[in-house]
Amino acid sequence: PASADVELSYTYYLDMVGEPDSALAHVRRAVSLDPTNPFMILNLARRFAFAGMIDSAVAAYERTLVMDSAQDWAHAHLAQLFVATGRPAEAEREITRFLRSNGDPESLANAASFYASAARPDLARDMLRRLEGLARSSDVPVSFIAMAKLAAGDRPGALDGLEKAAYMTFRS
């Protein structure tokens, strides 16, 4: 009962069984048990965002970054919130900060989705090109390429890639 990690883990279960209000209560408890843990604050921010409590989510993401500037995903989540609330300049600032320290496939795929939601298909296509370049020299999950293709407007290409991945999975 005094473990912030257990409280946080329980929130994931509550989300899966459709109890978002209880999940929010338990993540708040996790933060109260470990108030200096930026990961706890990050998860609180996510719960606020899911609950539509945008101002609280923004404040919690910003608090996370003050506590630990290496919590880069807070920048990505802030960018999405700013796009959704019609704050494009702030969204662009946050996604730029996120990409400055993240060039891995998952980050590029998420950035492509961000740019699609921000009505910047040119930049979504740029993220796709970067992902495809990485795929030439290393393993890049097909799902990330499919995500970027969808963001770049290539729905058939995204579906083809996912079908290929499913076929390969079931074949092995």
List the helices and strands and how they pair.
Elements: H1 4-16, H2 20-33, H3 38-50, H4 54-67, H5 73-84, H6 88-100, H7 105-117, H8 121-137, H9 142-151, H10 155-171
Helix pairs in contact: 1-2, 2-3, 3-4, 4-5, 5-6, 5-7, 7-8, 7-9, 8-9, 9-10
Task: Provide a descriptive summary of the structure in words.
- The structure is a single chain.
- By secondary structure, the protein is mainly α.
- Helix content is 79%, strand content 0%.
- It has ten helices and no strands.
- It starts with a helix and ends with a helix.
- The mean pLDDT is 93.
List keywords for this structure.
10 helices, 0% strand, single chain, mainly alpha, 172 residues, globular
> What proportion of the residues is helical, as a percent range?
over 70%
Topology, number of strands? 0
The residue-averaged pLDDT reads 93
Principal-axes shape call: globular
Largest sheet: none
Q: Specify the number of helices.
A: 10
Helix and strand run: HHHHHHHHHH
Oligomer: single chain
Query: How would you classify the helix and strand content by structural class?
Result: mainly alpha
Write down the Rg. Answer: 18 Å
Q: Spans with pLDDT under 50 lasting ≥5 residues?
A: none
What proportion strand?
Answer: under 5%
Distance between the termini: 43 Å
